[in-house]
Amino acid sequence: MGRPRTPLLNRERITTTALELVDAQGDFSVPQIARRLGVQTGSVYHHVDGRDGIVELLRERVTRGIDVSALELRPWDEALAAWARSYRAAFAAHPRAIPLLMTSPVRAPRVLEQYERAVTLLLDAGFPLPDVMPVLVALENVVLGSALDLAAPEAMWEIADKAAAPRLAEALDAVGDHRADTAFELALEGFLDHARRRRERHSAP
């Protein structure tokens, strides 16, 4: 038998195509995926659990870039910082996926496993159980906000007349290169300091 004119449809190709669409336009539709792959829309549904299933495949693909081994580092704050930096880099590569992924429930087993390891890290470090998810969600807010910032123009403030905002102009001139990286490290340091204090209050006699 001859080889098929189009490669066989599979979840990897569907995920790759969906991510290309999200990177380009911030969203996707199943008919768009089908058109790009040269198949019928129904054929896509044979391989995935609808749109929600594709979103979870996208989540697995984007989070594949996170270094989960960072969560094995000790002490806990070094582990959390290394994980946060890796997490930020993975999402900064696909910033338009952030609103899509952050507004749908997390179901992907590999991603849930990563959170399981993060929760275990904090519990083993002595955080009280009610604090664990707020700490992780707060860290995500820092990480994902910074990932979006990385996708923004380096010059977010355009001042036509520096005389109208002289101190702002001076501050912008002083910030130098890597504005987003500097801001992220500042936010991460502040977050970790606060998390350390919460943990210490709980563990104090």
From TrEMBL:
| Lineage top rank: taxon | Bacteria
Start-end of DNA-binding region: 29-48
Q: Which UniProt keywords apply?
A: DNA-binding, Transcription, Transcription regulation
Which Pfam families does the record associate with it? TetR_C_1
* InterPro entries tied to this protein: Homeodomain-like_sf, HTH-type_TetR-like_transc_reg, HTH_TetR, Repressor_TetR_C, Tet_transcr_reg_TetR-rel_C_sf
Gene3D superfamilies to which the protein is assigned, alphabetical = Tetracycline Repressor, domain 2
Please report the stretch or stretches of sequence annotated as the HTH tetR-type domain: 8-66
The name on file for this protein is: TetR/AcrR family transcriptional regulator
State the species of origin.
Streptomyces heilongjiangensis
